[in-house]
Queue: 3 jobs
Job 1
Amino acid sequence: MANSITLQGSTAIVKEFFYYSVNNLLYQRGIYPPDEFERVKQYGLPLLVSKQKQVKQFIHNALNQSEEWLLSNDIKKIVVVFTSIDTGKTLERWSFDILFDQDVAASGSTKDEKTIRSEIQNIIRQMTSSITFLPIIEEPASFDLLVYTAKETTTPSAWEESDPKLISNAEHVELRSFDTKIHKVQSMVAYAMDS
């Protein structure tokens, strides 16, 4: 197939989505000061990405490992967690379930990349607009990336097990999804109303 998306191509699309989504969330939720971000254009949208070396390295390392797990169908979910620095309380969980179609992966997806990019653009717009109804994060907060894998997956020694950082009595909002036909990413945000 001339215009077929391979497993590697689908993985690259999903990895790129997470790179821009995580950076956009860090900016939109005010986890770091605005002057620590630079503007880029992606998916036909102006987006912001961190200029901070440690943040860039952390995201890079997490997504490179996630890329390996996407290729081997070992990854099930990625969660972006915002936590209070003072109390350790989880303030928000942006959850992205990742579904994999083995049959399509074997033969390649014929889904148009322009359609996929449009779906991603819609998710990022929805994530950005959802900030209007989320509680303002008024306290200093940090972020972490939780990666859910198959039980038998070997994790790098530098990685550590984590609790799921759930929010008790959380409000949940399901967001849009996108798929390459090989990978489908479904998104949702959970947040505490009494922050």
Note: The mean pLDDT is 93.
Job 2
Amino acid sequence: MSDFDFPSAMPEKPVQSIEEQLRDSATTFIADITARLGDGVAPPPELEALKKVRDDEGSDVKALSLKIYELMIEQGMMYDIDADTGALTPTQFDIKNNLDIPEVKAEFRHLYTYGMELIKRDMIDIETVKDCVKTRLIERTGLSPEEFDRWLGF
């Protein structure tokens, strides 16, 4: 038996910058959404927007984070996920008339708090997240920003 320790002889995996990690995450997210779209289901425009930002070498962490966040929101708002296959199909769900359903509130809370985490980690500035949350989350509920915060328990 040899004294050669193969695992320790392997070069260390290079440490990725946060920007490289985000580009990899974007690629994975794009592939996942694309693969899961049901037959004949069009991708959301945010998918192409994320591709463009990911492929633009001049894009920074904030631009990548925003486009990932926007696609994340639109996936949750525009599509139903088949429990058996994971396929995404356009939703017919009426958000405004179903705010009392716990799963609806949980989805909005998750997406809202994800945006707050991006701010805390300095990945997106506060005004950008506010605009995104207002247009992509709050307006879908029909609530005012203050009512939205109360509804989520903030």
Note: The longest helix spans residues 18-36.
Job 3
Amino acid sequence: IQTLHLKHKQWYQRRVRGNREVLVSLVPSQFQQSFRALLEGLWVILHVYSSDPDPDRYVDVNVFKMECLDLYHLILENFGNRPDHRWVNLSPTLHSVLAHSWELIEANNCQSLGAFSESGLECNNKFLRIIREVKARKINEIVCHEDTLNRMWDKSCPLASTYRPIVHPRPAARRHHSDSLSERIAACYIV
């Protein structure tokens, strides 16, 4: 779950959140209301369990568990157990998120699991690939690895980093979700 939760959250934020109604319109009409509820439930669950932990705010595990189990039952009742319309298989990843993420949050002292994200490591892989493809000599493998290691060493050097230009990040995009989703997210926390 630790590796996959960030990927699910990023995929959902980039692809689904802005196009929720477009996705709902692609589903057969008898499933549209349930599918809309599925997308909203996924948004709430992924937001709560993959957010960064806050020492002043704890996840109400009982409320979060009910959100997960309600969504689990919604999937099984509306998409999985109907012999005439059985077109959804519950993947092991989705099962682990819906059935067991609340256990991980409870074991983590009722804190969200965003601190266990591997995005920092994955970001380094991106830099390594760019350095290897663009800024390293390609005479042979040893020279390429030498150049890559030297570039990474320069990147981690505190003295060298003082000479790098400061890049100001763009302001974060404003999240647009309905008040009912905000209330469901807030209900999962104990302040």
Note: The mean pLDDT is 77.
